[in-house]
User: Fold these one by one.
Assistant:
Number 1:
Amino acid sequence: MSDSRRTVLVLERDLALGSVLRRLLERLGLQVRCASSVRDALVAMRRQWPDLVLMDVTLRDGDAAGLIDVIRSQKDSTAIAVMTAQTDHPPARAERLSHCDAVFVKPVLAEPLLKWVVERASAAGGDGLARTAAIAS
């Protein structure tokens, strides 16, 4: 029996925050994979391509801008949200970050983040998200 749940890849260098995000997203009925580095993210994406990606701008071995380019070149329909504590990015990074679907400034509020995830997972054909809308709203 295959798992038809939408898959979210969480890339967060802060392992505690990554764990919190995993628990929140799993409670929504989503399948969650976590990584803390660009290398780990690439391995996870080779194993199973995600429907959504939530990523920190600065990872252990690089930054989100280059990874966004990789994701867009492989599958442009993948929903991407970036989480950042920085509000003033250098022009080159800011332009590359513009290729993601959403930017959340840390500390990220759970309600808008979960609302975005629910909307994107539903648009991607997520099963079992009816209960998700009640949790996230």
Number 2:
Amino acid sequence: MIPPSPTVKEVKAPLAAAPGHRLTLTALATSGAGCRGAGMKDFFISYNAADKAWAEWIAWQLEASGWSVIVQAWDFRPGGNFALDMNNALTSTQRTIAVLSPSFLTSDYTAPEWAATFARDPTGAARRLIPVRVRECRPTGLLAPIVCIDLVGIATRDEARKVLIDGLRERVKPSEEPALPEPDPVKPRVAAEEPPWPPALEIAARVARGVLVRVARIGAAFLGAALITWLLLGSLLPGYVQENPLAAGAVALLWGAITALVLEAAVFLKRRFAPSSRSFGS
């Protein structure tokens, strides 16, 4: 079961230095064997006394997964020197887990612990400082930009353990191939339709067609009547045609024009008195 969020008052003792010596963050970060010592452990868990249950739960999960851990509740034993135990914990572990809560962020004694680790890895390239948020809080200052493992709101042990362990791994690649993402919904294509013929162009086309038909009709009537007239003059008055070809031609053309005009007048009168059959080009 995931530990509750207790409200125990802070009881952790302050860091102390031997008489005549000053204990600084630099000393904590650089003294001892450093990060390359043969006896290095994986994690030091920094927490406030109000979050002891969370610290022990996290330590248990880490050791159950094969990591080595130093946690005050288990490793700082009676008779030891608290300042030296803390210095040893910070200098003999690869990384520090900060158990974030309002109590942690307001404590005077947890700040030097995470600050010492931060001094060893200010850019976060080695992931030496890993915050684990266990209660609602908002880190500020140098802690704010560090990505944390968030256990707030997780109700089940298995889910919380998975989030914790996955957050500590170097890479979280799934054991199975991810499913193919669903494609974006495709909008149905609308069949292209021929744009409607503009009414103005349709009227213009009908007028032009009617004019061409009328011109062709008049021309055919004119030429046909002129030709027939010429042939009749040639058969009835051959001498006149031979002596006056121009006059005979003029007579033929005049008769063709008259015939064409009479025919066009007949068409006009037909349309005039029969409106239902009226159409351009008829």
Number 3:
Amino acid sequence: MSACFKSRYAKLTVIQVYAPTNDADDESKEEFYEQLQWELETTPRHDVLIVMGDLNAKIVEWRVMKDGRWWDDMDLEEWTRMERLATFCGKNDLVIGGSLFKYGDIHKITWTSVNARDRNQIDHIISNGRYRGSPMDTQAMRGADANSDNHMVMGKVRLKLCSTKRERRERTIFDIKKLRDPCVKEVFRLEVSNRFQVLGTDDADDIEEMWGRFKGVYNERAKNVLGEKRRVKSDWISRKTYKKIEERWGLKAKIRCTRSAHMKERAAAAYAVKDKEVKASARADKWRWLNDLAEEAETAARNNCSGDLSQLNVEEVLERWREHFEEVLNVQRPHIPLPVIDQAPGVITSIDTGDISIAEIKRAIHRRKTGKSPGIVGISAELLKCSEKDAVKQLHLLINAIWKEQCATEDWKKSLIVKVQKKGDLAQCDNYRSISLLSVPSKILCRVLIDRLKSGVDEMIRRE
């Protein structure tokens, strides 16, 4: 198995291998090295190459000369495997990471037999000689609790990888739950108040400038004090399984620390029993988690889908939704002449059309529900209620300027469209209904206008 990683200067190619064991015949071993040789030949020469895995061949340091060749206490089979690996590395200019760094045997041994008597270094991390300086460290990590006779081998490679470019979402969702803490709430209120005092209120005359200052203050203070809300992934492993994992970890530590062979055998037997319990419990947790996901999917779509939106790329899906919502939401106005208000029958003339007062804005903020979407701007009702005094003052100036100019800001004209399934085929756009999420400050003005219209209509109904 091979994988290629892009970097700023040279690509990194990693080849994961598993060599045949001692029981395999010579043909299987020769075939393994032929396949590995073909994989190396197809890899570009300028790439940083890492070959790692269980090669079932150990390397030795203390050797003696016999009959003109270097030998040690290994048998012929072990020597043959090591010679194959050494010949392969010499032919392709490869360097074995375990031979570059000086560690004790405790950090070199990668395999321990069942009886805990035989130990060898058969797992290796090999790199090409061209980038000999890239590997920074290679050692065995015995702490991994995996119930395996092989220890994990960790290697550090000096390489500057290319950063993955992720599209930044336009709207930011802040961690509003922190406002439940009175201390955090007071800090946020002071930050907003101090920032507005520094900026002043008499400098901005343009509506867009006033709105940009208002939005910038709240977004900056909320980001500094509250931070962005992070999505927490659900953990399918239960607490019961975690407890068993901790118990298994304690048994593994007991095996490492015990010197008596008899006590090690007892601890190893207890570890094997506990490992079976952990795997059975984790398997049950995973099946339970998968069943929950299946039930959610069945609840969301109980009918068979004739199409599959996942077969389309993101651009095609967005273009398809754009065409659908343009057709649904952009309705042509009827060409009917509007009557003159003064001459129209039944016109309500008792509606207040004067400047919007501070009391109206304050009442509209109080009536905003919490826990709702902040829209594309990111300013939620919780932020306005937390700094009510400054929010009312700044919105009073902004909304009155919009009321006089009869022109809203560009952000107030935008909405975030969320699609909700109704019924039928999921691949058909007509089987969804849309919800437009507006910015909360624009809803303050809408609430004031609705209250004024309602008061005028109620007065006319009472007269009738």
